[in-house]
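Researcher: Next entry: Gliding motility lipoprotein GldH (Chitinophaga nivalis).
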Amino acid sequence: MNRLFLVTTGLFLLAAACKPPKLDAYEKNLEIPGHDWTYDYKPFFEITLQPEDTANLYDIAVNVRHTDAYPYSNIWVMIGTQYPGDSVIKEQRVELQLAELSGKWLGTGLDDIYERRIPIQQKAIFNKPGTYRFTFEQNMRQNPLPHVMNVGLRIEKAGKRP
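Model: Predicted structure:
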Protein backbone atom coordinates (compact mmCIF):
# COMPACT_ATOMS: atom_id res chain seq x y z
CA MET A 1 0.00 0.00 0.00
CA ASN A 2 2.75 2.42 0.99
CA ARG A 3 4.72 1.62 -2.16
CA LEU A 4 1.66 2.20 -4.39
CA PHE A 5 1.16 5.60 -2.75
CA LEU A 6 4.78 6.58 -3.45
CA VAL A 7 4.58 5.48 -7.10
CA THR A 8 1.28 7.32 -7.64
CA THR A 9 2.61 10.47 -5.99
CA GLY A 10 5.76 10.28 -8.11
CA LEU A 11 3.72 9.99 -11.31
CA PHE A 12 1.58 13.00 -10.36
CA LEU A 13 4.70 15.07 -9.65
CA LEU A 14 6.24 14.01 -12.95
CA ALA A 15 3.08 14.96 -14.85
CA ALA A 16 2.98 18.35 -13.13
CA ALA A 17 6.63 18.97 -13.96
CA CYS A 18 5.96 18.38 -17.68
CA LYS A 19 3.31 21.10 -17.79
CA PRO A 20 4.61 24.40 -19.27
CA PRO A 21 4.98 27.10 -16.61
CA LYS A 22 2.57 30.00 -16.35
CA LEU A 23 4.03 33.38 -17.22
CA ASP A 24 4.78 35.59 -14.23
CA ALA A 25 7.83 37.29 -15.76
CA TYR A 26 10.00 36.94 -18.84
CA GLU A 27 13.29 38.71 -19.39
CA LYS A 28 15.96 38.15 -21.97
CA ASN A 29 18.80 40.39 -23.15
CA LEU A 30 20.85 39.88 -26.29
CA GLU A 31 24.30 41.23 -27.03
CA ILE A 32 24.73 43.58 -29.99
CA PRO A 33 27.62 42.18 -32.09
CA GLY A 34 30.70 44.39 -31.74
CA HIS A 35 28.52 46.91 -29.84
CA ASP A 36 27.61 48.44 -33.24
CA TRP A 37 23.91 47.95 -33.94
CA THR A 38 23.42 47.68 -37.70
CA TYR A 39 20.13 47.86 -39.58
CA ASP A 40 20.64 44.22 -40.58
CA TYR A 41 20.84 42.91 -37.01
CA LYS A 42 17.28 42.41 -35.77
CA PRO A 43 17.27 40.61 -32.43
CA PHE A 44 14.06 38.75 -31.64
CA PHE A 45 12.42 37.31 -28.57
CA GLU A 46 9.85 34.51 -28.49
CA ILE A 47 7.52 33.91 -25.60
CA THR A 48 4.92 31.15 -25.35
CA LEU A 49 1.73 31.84 -23.42
CA GLN A 50 -0.55 29.17 -22.03
CA PRO A 51 -4.38 29.54 -22.08
CA GLU A 52 -4.40 30.58 -18.40
CA ASP A 53 -1.89 33.38 -19.16
CA THR A 54 -4.48 35.19 -21.30
CA ALA A 55 -6.46 35.99 -18.13
CA ASN A 56 -3.75 38.43 -16.99
CA LEU A 57 -2.50 41.91 -17.78
CA TYR A 58 1.21 42.45 -18.51
CA ASP A 59 3.69 45.32 -18.39
CA ILE A 60 6.17 45.35 -21.28
CA ALA A 61 9.56 47.07 -21.19
CA VAL A 62 12.67 47.32 -23.35
CA ASN A 63 16.13 47.03 -21.78
CA VAL A 64 19.02 48.98 -23.30
CA ARG A 65 22.63 48.76 -22.19
CA HIS A 66 25.14 51.25 -23.64
CA THR A 67 28.42 52.98 -22.86
CA ASP A 68 28.71 56.65 -21.98
CA ALA A 69 30.25 57.16 -25.44
CA TYR A 70 26.80 56.57 -27.00
CA PRO A 71 26.31 59.77 -29.06
CA TYR A 72 22.57 60.40 -28.53
CA SER A 73 20.10 60.93 -25.68
CA ASN A 74 17.59 58.50 -27.16
CA ILE A 75 17.23 55.59 -29.54
CA TRP A 76 14.41 54.95 -31.99
CA VAL A 77 13.45 51.31 -32.39
CA MET A 78 11.00 49.54 -34.69
CA ILE A 79 9.29 46.84 -32.64
CA GLY A 80 7.61 44.12 -34.64
CA THR A 81 5.06 41.85 -33.02
CA GLN A 82 3.96 38.57 -34.57
CA TYR A 83 0.94 36.95 -32.94
CA PRO A 84 0.38 33.18 -32.64
CA GLY A 85 -0.65 31.67 -35.97
CA ASP A 86 -0.24 34.95 -37.90
CA SER A 87 2.24 35.59 -40.68
CA VAL A 88 1.72 39.38 -40.48
CA ILE A 89 4.05 41.40 -38.28
CA LYS A 90 2.63 44.54 -36.65
CA GLU A 91 5.33 47.22 -36.43
CA GLN A 92 5.48 50.21 -34.13
CA ARG A 93 8.18 52.89 -33.99
CA VAL A 94 9.12 53.67 -30.38
CA GLU A 95 11.43 56.32 -28.93
CA LEU A 96 13.45 55.11 -25.96
CA GLN A 97 14.77 57.98 -23.83
CA LEU A 98 18.27 57.25 -22.46
CA ALA A 99 19.26 60.65 -21.03
CA GLU A 100 17.75 63.75 -19.46
CA LEU A 101 17.79 67.06 -21.36
CA SER A 102 20.82 68.03 -19.26
CA GLY A 103 22.72 65.06 -20.71
CA LYS A 104 22.65 62.98 -17.50
CA TRP A 105 22.16 59.31 -18.33
CA LEU A 106 18.99 57.67 -17.05
CA GLY A 107 18.96 54.21 -15.51
CA THR A 108 21.79 52.67 -13.55
CA GLY A 109 25.47 53.03 -14.27
CA LEU A 110 28.70 51.33 -13.35
CA ASP A 111 31.88 53.01 -14.57
CA ASP A 112 31.10 53.90 -18.20
CA ILE A 113 28.25 51.39 -18.76
CA TYR A 114 24.59 52.35 -18.34
CA GLU A 115 21.52 50.17 -18.27
CA ARG A 116 17.97 51.39 -18.63
CA ARG A 117 14.61 49.59 -18.56
CA ILE A 118 12.03 51.62 -20.46
CA PRO A 119 8.33 50.77 -20.12
CA ILE A 120 6.62 50.73 -23.52
CA GLN A 121 3.21 49.32 -22.61
CA GLN A 122 1.36 48.89 -19.35
CA LYS A 123 -1.48 46.47 -18.73
CA ALA A 124 -1.09 44.81 -22.14
CA ILE A 125 -3.51 42.03 -23.05
CA PHE A 126 -2.52 38.85 -24.85
CA ASN A 127 -5.78 37.43 -26.20
CA LYS A 128 -4.50 34.18 -27.70
CA PRO A 129 -2.34 31.45 -26.21
CA GLY A 130 0.67 30.44 -28.27
CA THR A 131 4.04 31.84 -29.30
CA TYR A 132 4.49 35.59 -29.68
CA ARG A 133 7.59 36.92 -31.46
CA PHE A 134 8.98 40.41 -30.80
CA THR A 135 11.62 41.78 -33.20
CA PHE A 136 13.73 44.89 -32.53
CA GLU A 137 15.33 46.96 -35.28
CA GLN A 138 17.34 50.11 -34.63
CA ASN A 139 15.71 52.99 -36.52
CA MET A 140 18.20 55.83 -36.18
CA ARG A 141 19.82 57.71 -39.08
CA GLN A 142 23.27 56.43 -38.16
CA ASN A 143 24.20 52.93 -39.30
CA PRO A 144 25.82 51.22 -37.53
CA LEU A 145 24.73 52.73 -34.23
CA PRO A 146 27.82 52.67 -31.99
CA HIS A 147 28.22 51.86 -28.29
CA VAL A 148 24.97 49.90 -27.85
CA MET A 149 25.92 46.77 -25.93
CA ASN A 150 22.65 44.90 -25.33
CA VAL A 151 18.96 45.11 -26.02
CA GLY A 152 16.32 43.12 -24.23
CA LEU A 153 12.67 42.50 -23.53
CA ARG A 154 10.93 42.24 -20.16
CA ILE A 155 7.31 41.15 -19.73
CA GLU A 156 5.85 40.83 -16.26
CA LYS A 157 2.42 40.06 -14.89
CA ALA A 158 0.55 43.18 -13.79
CA GLY A 159 -2.60 41.60 -12.38
CA LYS A 160 -5.80 39.96 -13.56
CA ARG A 161 -7.84 41.20 -16.53
CA PRO A 162 -11.08 42.95 -15.61
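Model: Note for the record: The CA atoms of residues 48 and 55 lie 14 Å apart.
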